[in-house]
Design brief:
Two copies of one chain form a homodimer. The first copy, chain A, is built from nine helices and no strands. By secondary structure, chain A is mainly α. In chain A, helix 7 packs across helix 8 and helix 8 runs antiparallel to helix 9. Chain A starts with a helix and ends with a helix. Chains A and B meet through helix 8 and helix 9 of A and helix 8 and helix 9 of B. Chain A binds a DNA duplex through helix 1 and helix 3.
DNA sequence: CCGCTATCGAACATTGTATTTGTTATATTA
DNA sequence: TAATATAACAAATACAATGTTCGATAGCGG
């Protein structure tokens, strides 16, 4: 990739994070980003169609580390050992901890919704596969249960990051399974 | 209140709901509302400072029925009998069922966030009081638990309405407590 | 070194918000 | 029912932000 493109991509992303320390997502204008990143107007629009597309790209960056397929080939699509899912969750929390500062910005404003929406996408299949290895009873409708398991994970994440990640990733994972396992084995 | 004011208030609210059947919240412009409601521009701004303020007002309308203080004086601030909270929840689902159509519109677009935010406000104290009548163990941090109980209620509501309220209010309430009671008495 | 292309920046069209102003219509109350 | 208050209205306007276009310039890779 052309160095120039790379440079502006980085400049824009960095500017975005910088601005997020000071302003709320919806208050940040494209112009703000251009000024902060020292990038021409038309250049920005050659890279991203809208401000929202930029945010999606940034989320994708984050998730590409979190849900990296290559790093954990053996723990995918095999939940015969229930611990695999536990490992993935812990792994996720570790990565979120690394991106703590950026995430605090994103989750502290309207951008939260987009982040959550994207995260839901990634967790969807994953949780679905998991739940039906563990879940035996037919107390709940399938999708209600899956929705609750996903939602609980997401909301716990939000709570954790909002509170500045005081607990360790392992501790948070413990909390998570303490919240959902009683339901799965009701 | 002046009949004229009442009339425009109703016209605006009704126009809003009508538009929500066709468009997403963020796609609805003030102009759309003016046209649909047959109301002058300046008139609108004499009633609401912004479109968002209108939405808050509409949410307040809905919640005023749901969390009506006068209707249930005996079941407030007394959770010595745990069933009181159960009744409030069922009562809530009943009202949401009545407002089903409107809620589907609101929850089906960006307006969801504002609705949820407002609902959180109403549920906050209520759930807090409830949880610590029931909860005995010190497995979770207080606010984590409260957050989870509130969130689960909200997300279950969203799931239910999105799915067109196929279950009865009582049924949904059952699901809710089946989701949270195992956690509270872990 | 040459050709390709990314960047620049200014201008522009567009859309939407919110305010202001003066006029008209409709309530309330005396 | 007449007088007073005030709500509704239309039109004009300021303003803020988005997204597009275009010709010139500078930097990259082969």
């Amino acid at each position: 990739m052309d160095r120039r493109q790379l440079k502006t991509q980085q400049a824009i992303r960095q500017a975005f994070f910088e601005l997020m320390k000071r302003k709320t997502y919806s208050k940040i204008t494209v112009q703000d980003i251009l000024d902060e990143a020292n990038v021409g107007r038309s250049t920005f629009y050659e890279h991203f169609r809208t401000k929202e597309e930029l945010l999606h790209a940034i989320c994708a960056d984050i998730f590409s580390h979190v849900f990296c397929p290559s790093l954990e080939p053996e723990m995918r699509h095999d939940f015969s050992n229930t611990n695999d899912f536990r490992h993935i969750v812990i792994h996720m929390f570790y990565h979120f901890y690394e991106d703590k500062e950026e995430l605090k910005g994103i989750l502290g404003s309207e951008s939260k919704e987009i982040f959550v929406q994207d995260l839901r996408g990634y967790l969807g299949e994953l949780v679905y596969d998991y739940v039906f290895k563990v879940y035996k009873n037919a107390v709940f409708p399938e999708d209600l249960l899956v929705n609750h398991i996903i939602t609980s994970l997401i909301e716990l994440t939000l709570w954790w990051i909002k509170g500045d990640c005081k607990e360790t990733p392992e501790q948070i994972a413990e909390y998570y399974f303490a919240l959902i396992l009683p339901v799965l084995s009701a």
